[in-house]
């Protein structure tokens, strides 16, 4: 029989065991953090089941801007002849991951703002673009953009493209290429999206903290100093 341990020795033994358990837990956490998960994505046509996913991404795109994302989502789904959504490829039923087979990781589409004139969300998008342009652009540019929005002979389209940050940018190029094919087909069949003469893309850019925010400084901002939220932009 081993000799009985004193109180102090028992406490030391317990502390050592606790430290060992803590080290093992940290090692396990490190393994989980460093684990890489390979996921394959595929583009699908937009359908009614994509409403929640598209709306969520539109809210991410517009953040707290006053744009009716619910109405905009409805419009994009109604014109499902153009646009795509990104989903995980072949989610198996026995998969251990808690993944919804209808979960959307990104999307792209095109909305004819001129054709939708008077629709609340279309008017809100135009007002938002003009307001942001007034902050960063010369007056002549704002006036030209306003004329563009009111030129019925040359319709303007808004091209929303958004994805989650963990989706690689390489997927963006084939989605844009597919959109151009769908736009050409829409033009052939005389659908609104095929009539767009201009396409406006929304790009979120950032500058390093401490940089001047004056209009003059921003107007002279070198392109290489800008950081884009989406790498392909």
TrEMBL record:
Q: Where is this region: Disordered?
A: 1-34, 210-233
Q: Write down the PANTHER family for this protein, in alphabetical order.
A: BRCA2 AND CDKN1A INTERACTING PROTEIN, BRCA2 AND CDKN1A-INTERACTING PROTEIN
Q: Which family does it belong to?
A: Belongs to the BCP1 family.
Q: Which residues lie in Acidic residues bias regions?
A: 11-34
Gene Ontology CC terms, in alphabetical order: nucleus; spindle pole
Where would you find this protein in the cell? Cytoplasm, Cytoskeleton, Spindle pole
Return the Basic and acidic residues bias intervals: 1-10
Domain of life assignment: Eukaryota
InterPro entries, alphabetically?
Answer: BCP1_family
First-listed, main subcellular location of the protein, grouped into a coarse class = cytoplasm
User: Source species, please?
Assistant: Ovis ammon polii
Q: Kindly provide the name given to this protein in its UniProt entry.
A: BRCA2 and CDKN1A-interacting protein
